[in-house]
Specification:
- The protein has 135 residues and is mainly alpha-helical.
- The chain has a single domain, classed as Membrane associated eicosanoid/glutathione metabolism-like domain (Four Helix Bundle (Hemerythrin (Met), subunit A)), CATH 1.20.120.550.
- The protein contains 6 helices and no strands.
- The chain is elongated, with a radius of gyration of 18 Å.
- The protein starts with 5 loop residues before the first helix and ends with a helix.
């Protein structure tokens, strides 16, 4: 597995599982603390911090899906460039920072938005590289 896109892909996958492995015990604890699901519903559901954590886990199945598809496209076609590799790393780092922001203080604007934008632009760069290789 010496392809330069394998490590950023794996790191993105590890991030998703780290979020899940920290989310599950927190949800279970909140349910137990409320006396069960019915108690949690009566209390108005999970607190905002736990909702943010859950939202972040869901986010791992939005833009990262495009990231995985692009990486697999580059790997399968053998057409990766240094620009695509750099963009892949920028994307993964942006997702890590986005996760840290969303699961802690969750300053949406401008902090989290700008980090999200950096990741989205990195994906656009990868798409641009893929298009130039395809044409």
């Amino acid at each position: 597995m010496s392809h330069p896109l394998v490590l950023p892909m794996l790191l993105q996958m590890v991030l998703a599982f780290c979020i899940l492995l920290t989310l599950a015990p927190r949800r279970i604890s909140a349910i137990k603390k409320a006396g069960g699901i019915k108690g949690l519903v009566k209390a108005g559901g999970f607190n905002q911090k736990l909702i943010n954590h859950s939202d972040n886990f869901k986010n791992q199945f939005e833009l990262p899906v495009i990231f995985y598809a692009l990486c697999l496209l580059f790997i399968a076609t053998g057409t990766v460039s240094q620009g695509a590799v750099i963009a892949a790393w920028v994307f993964v780092v942006s997702r890590i920072v986005h996760t840290l922001i969303q699961t802690t203080n969750n300053v949406i604007f401008p902090t989290r938005f700008l980090v999200f934008l950096v990741g989205a632009v990195a994906l656009m760069v990868m798409i641009g590289v893929a298009l130039t290789k395809a044409l």
